[in-house]
Amino acid sequence: MKHIVKILSLLVAISAFWIGLLQAAVVPRTHTWLLPIYFVVSLGCYGLLMVGIGLMQFPTCPQEAVLLQKDIAEAKDFFKHKGVDVGSD
């Protein structure tokens, strides 16, 4: 819930900044109308960066990998006894 509030407050702040730029005419109108596009592109880049960082910091769990291999072997044995072809391994 906190993350949603943070995103919404950021969106409101950016919208207020954009409307302020439109009203004050500090930046030419042709540039000001492009700000939402820049915001969407920046948000996409931020999302890709967060996914990349999450993938780089993804924890490896060797104990869980061993347990998963044991579960797979049990499932193969179970299905072999039921007459299901589960591959050559």
Description:
- It is found in: Endoplasmic reticulum membrane.
- The chain crosses the membrane at residues 34-55.
- Component of the dolichol-phosphate mannose (DPM) synthase complex.
- InterPro entries: DPM3.
- The two termini are 46 Å apart.
- The chain is mostly helical.
- The chain has helices spanning 2-24, 29-32, 35-56, 62-81.
- The radius of gyration is 26 Å and the shape is rod-shaped.
- The chain has 4 helices and no strands.
- The mean pLDDT is 82.
- The protein has one domain (1-82).
In short:
Its main location: endoplasmic reticulum. The protein has 89 residues and is mainly α.
Question: What is the secondary structure topology, with strand pairs?
Answer:
Elements: H1 2-24, H2 29-32, H3 35-56, H4 62-81
Features of this protein?
rod-shaped; 0% strand; mainly alpha; 4 helices; 89 residues
